[in-house]
TrEMBL record:
It holds the Pfam family FGE-sulfatase. It comes from Thermomonospora cellulosilytica. It catalyses: gamma-L-glutamyl-L-cysteine + hercynine + O2 = gamma-L-glutamyl-hercynylcysteine S-oxide + H2O. The gene is egtB. Keywords: Iron, Metal-binding, Monooxygenase, Oxidoreductase. Residues 20-150 form the DinB-like domain. GO terms for molecular function: gamma-glutamyl hercynylcysteine sulfoxide synthase activity; iron ion binding. This is Hercynine oxygenase. Signal peptide: none annotated. InterPro entries: CTDL_fold, DinB-like, DinB/YfiT-like, EgtB, EgtB_Actinobacteria, Sulfatase_Mod_Factor_Kinase, SUMF_dom, SUMF_sf.
């Protein structure tokens, strides 16, 4: 977290993180795929990878060169190509996009000018754009978010595997007997943030929310548990489904999470070009909100609200304050599966050291978790620095996801971070956990 750093140290951190995220982006694009694959569209849901690559550079030019440093546009004629609002994803392959070598040269030139201007710029506490290095943090996070999107494109792509799974080992197991759910007592907690320097507008500001008591699952729902739902006929019983979810399920006769199929009497899944048996202890991935909602009803539970998720993750009842991460305020390696250290979620129980004050585990990393909540503005919300990051998406169409996935970088993840998507979507790295009402003894 950049809070409290001297300006020079903050600039050093920013330069290092800009370098690291670019290395990640190139490792998902020009280093592993040829011209044809970079310019192809693998699904109408996704951009050609070469679009993401030039888009992150164009966004960096807009915010770090033009807005922050006052430098004239380099190539104003390409702005509209990379404006996500002018051209929906389905249209992007038909645009006269920069070819891969030109895209790489363009983003490299932008980057060189950014590093040059970073030395001269002053971060001013009275200027919200540069205070605490905010706009630089925004651009670093933006590129990491697109890298996660690019991983979803890789997952959808056909053909020989392009990505190597670093497959970092998980910490050694300690203990091992955990309750299946945890009681969160009734009472107020602080939701959102007013002082996280790189938080997005939609996470601000901190406000008190009072919740009745509830139970929340210790872990995300596993493949083993989800297979029990499938085998109990869960996909064939409209009692469990939201009416719109039943329609979604029926339109294509869906009967399992994305990328799964039945082979030789067992469930297998395609993962980045390789087929493997579905690992029973991993959190289920690639489920839509409708599938999560149906499972929860079948299990006699429900999805947690966004506030319930955040209280279980962040509130420390002894200290009467909210933490930035479940385990504390600082990001620490070895407490969560984040940052593409593996190409998969880890089995439940892999990170007991990442538990929240209440003992809820793996809330950060592994899989994005669907909540029952629509994506809406917090009290006193003000769009900053532009309406198209969050504000235009507020409303009943989108459901909130929390916690980040194995593909989310630690800089784009924290207990307050809010993600959102349509309830039918499951190409992203989504899972869920369940909750239920509790009636407290008097
Ligand atoms: C926050 C993941 C929904 O990918 O649409 C990227 C992030 N915003 N470029 C998205 C984003 C602008 C956004 N999500
Ligand atoms: Fe973007």
């Amino acid at each position: 977290a950049p809070a409290g750093l001297a300006e020079d140290d903050l600039k050093e951190l920013i330069a290092a993180e800009l370098g690291a995220v670019r290395d990640r982006s190139l490792g998902l694009t020009t280093r592993v795929l040829d011209h044809a694959e970079l310019t192809a569209q693998v699904s109408p849901l996704m951009s050609p990878l070469v679009w993401d690559l030039a888009h992150v550079g164009n966004y960096e030019e807009l915010w770090l060169l033009r807005a922050a440093a006052g430098i004239d546009p380099m190539r104003p004629e390409i702005d509209s190509l990379y404006d996500a609002f002018e051209h929906p994803r389905a249209e992007r392959p038909a645009l006269p996009l920069l070819p891969p070598d030109e895209a790489r040269a363009y983003i490299g030139t932008v980057r060189a000018k950014v590093l040059d201007s970073l030395e001269r710029i002053r971060f001013r506490e009275d200027d919200p754009l540069t205070a605490g290095g905010f706009v630089y943090g925004m651009v670093v996070q933006h590129e990491h978010q697109h890298d996660e999107t690019m991983l979803a494109t890789h997952q959808l792509r056909k053909g020989a595997p392009a990505l190597l799974d670093p497959d970092e080992p998980v910490p050694a197991r300690i203990g091992g007997m955990f309750p299946t759910e945890v009681l969160i007592e009734a009472g107020p907690f602080e939701m959102g943030t007013s002082d996280d320097p790189w938080a997005y507008d939609n996470e601000r500001g901190a406000h008190i929310v009072d919740l009745p008591a509830y139970y929340i699952d210790t872990f995300p729902v596993t493949n083993r548990a989800y297979i029990a739902f499938i085998e109990a006929g869960g996909y064939d019983d409209p009692r469990w489904w939201d009416p719109e979810g039943w329609e979604w399920r029926s339109a294509k006769d869906r009967g399992a999470p994305g990328f799964w199929r039945r082979e030789g009497g067992q469930w297998v899944r395609r993962r980045f070009g390789r087929v493997e048996p579905v690992p029973p202890d991993e959190p289920v991935q690639h489920v839509s909100w409708y599938e999560a909602d149906a499972y929860a009803r079948w299990a006699g539970k429900r999805l947690p609200t966004e506030a319930e998720w955040e209280k279980a993750a962040r509130w420390d009842p002894a200290a009467q304050r909210s933490r930035r991460f479940p385990w504390g305020d600082a990001y620490e390696e070895g407490r969560a599966n984040l940052g593409q250290r593996r190409l998969r979620p880890t089995p439940v129980g892999s990170f007991p050291g990442g538990a929240s004050a209440y003992g809820v585990q793996q809330m950060i990393g592994d899989v994005w978790e669907w909540t029952s909540s629509d994506f809406t503005a917090y009290p006193g919300f003000r769009a900053f620095p532009y309406k198209e990051y969050s504000e235009v998406f507020f409303g009943p169409g989108y459901k909130v996801l929390r916690g980040g996935s194995w593909a989310t970088h630690p800089l784009a993840c924290r207990g307050t971070f809010r993600n959102w998507d349509y309830p039918i979507r499951r190409q992203i790295f989504t899972g869920f956990r369940c909750a239920r009402d509790a009636v407290e003894a008097r």
